[in-house]
Amino acid sequence: MKFLDEAKIYLESGKGGPGCVAFRREKYIDMGGPDGGNGGRGGHVYLEVVDNLNTLIDFRYTQHFRAGPGMHGSGANRTGKDGKDITVKVPVGTVVLDEDKETELFDLVTPGERILLLKGGDGGFGNAHYKSSTNRAPRKATPGWPGEERAVWLRLKLIADAGIVGLPNAGKSTFLSVVSRAKPKIADYPFTTLAPNLGVVRSHENEFVLADIPGLIEGAHEGHGLGTRFLGHVERTRVLLHLIDATADDIVADYKTIRAELKAYGHGLAKKPEIIVLNKIDALGPELAEDQQKILSKAIRKKVHIISAVSREGVDKVLEELWTHIAKGRAKDKAALALTAANEVVFEE
User: Fold this and answer.
1) In terms of pLDDT, which residue wins out, 224 or 114?
2) 170-212 pLDDT, tens per residue?
3) Closest by alpha carbon to 53, among 14, 8, 87, 93?
4) Where are the alpha helices (DSSP H) in 15-131?
5) What are phi and psi of 149, to 5 degrees?
6) Can you give the CATH number for the domain in which 102 is found?
């Protein structure tokens, strides 16, 4: 299935049905009075979060969604049938943006969550509604109210525990393919990965989700190389795995390039825990690999791992450190959830 993480859709709720002008007419009952019913309400438009979707590709082929109109009222004070509601299903992690593509309306991260986006128009009144002591036979009825129309952008941000960042050709997809059953495209040239990939990683008895995004370039925070969309997929992660090509000419500059993009992008990416890894040490040999490790560690004053994703050398230690950060994040989220639940109970009492 092709991955699509952004789509524009057009939504319209149903218009209300018109009211009815009618009078009761039965044998032996003269001037039975008005009995025209009201029109039915137009259909609502809902958004629903489902966990069996992981792309917005369906919205490439279907962009327009329209709820049903309300039916007109009829005699004998019969109200028209309400219009059919419509539910647009989106993946977990979908952000709903206004048409300006900047104003965030909803952030949908809970499976089963259902929100009312557009309300259907109310039905019009039949003539029975206008009966009064001074107007015993009104011939007035109103049309239904129009529905609402709106265009919104859907932007998918993947839900993952950890995310891999780095320059093109740093070996991110190879790492993901080695530690999980994901099968991303792998080749010996930059920009092989054109869409994010997810993989479930098992480290000892622990499992977590790892996201691999396409390689970033300088200016990614401004959209160069579609960087803003790719960076959005690691916003929700608890820890970042920063992969650097150990065979590069200037590993320090490569590291600083990615860090600058994370900081410029914002949204807390630069403040996330970071595990720094020099990859492809199999191409250097043990001594040269250690020299590269010392150079980078001294320049940035942080711990640096050295691994070979191809041979799995050093990979297990990196996975263990990833899990340490993920476990802390999960425990923190669990404690926050328990505190919220406790506060809600106290408030209800």
Assistant:
1) 114
2) 888 888 888 887 665 554 444 444 567 778 888 888 888 888 8
3) 93
4) 58-61
5) -125, 145
6) 2.70.210.12
